[in-house]
C-alpha cells in the first residue's frame, strides 16, 4: 500500500523478563510499551484491557490458544487485587488453564522468577500509573 500507514499489533517475538513498570506501561528487552501486555510462549503482545473488569474471555483467547505450552497464567490486574470476570474464569477453567490473580507488580515479579527458572508461565499484566 503506497503511502499508507499499516498498524500492526504490538508484538515482541520471544520471552523476556519485565525490567520496569509504571507510568502506564512496561520496559522489557530494551524497549518500552505504553499500555497493558500479554506474555505468552509465542511472545509479548500489546493487550487491550486497561482495568480488571475488561479481562474477559476474548482478552484471554491467545492464552487459551497456547494453553498446551502454559502451566500457569498470572493475571496482574492493576494496583489493587480484583477478581476476574466470571466469563474469564469459565473460559480459563474450561480450557484447563490454571491461573492466579494478583496486583500487577506481584504478577510481574513472579513472572520474572518463573521465566528465570524456565517454567511454562504466561502473564496478563494491566498497566498502572
CATH domain topology: Hypothetical Protein Mth938, Chain: A
Structural class: alpha+beta
The spatial strand order of the largest sheet comes to: 1-6-5-9-7-8
Average predicted local confidence, pLDDT: 92
* Strand content bin: 25-35%
Radius of gyration: 14 Å
Main beta sheet: 6 strands, mixed
What gap, in angstroms, lies between the N and C termini? 37 Å
Total number of helical segments?
A: 3
Q: How would you portray this structure in words?
A:
- It is a single chain.
- With 129 residues, the chain is of the alpha+beta class.
- It has helices at residues 61-65, 86-94, 104-116; strands spanning 11-12, 18-22, 25-28, 31-34, 36-40, 43-47, 72-76, 99-102, 121-125.
- It is built from 3 helices and 9 strands, in the order E-E-E-E-E-E-H-E-H-E-H-E.
- It has a 6-stranded mixed sheet, with helices on one face. A 3-stranded antiparallel sheet has the order 2-3-4.
- Strand 7, helix 2 (86-94) and strand 8 (99-102) form a beta-alpha-beta unit.
- The termini are far apart.
What is this entry, summarized?
With 129 residues, this protein is an alpha+beta fold. It has helices at 61-65, 86-94, 104-116; strands spanning 11-12, 18-22, 25-28, 31-34, 36-40, 43-47, 72-76, 99-102, 121-125.
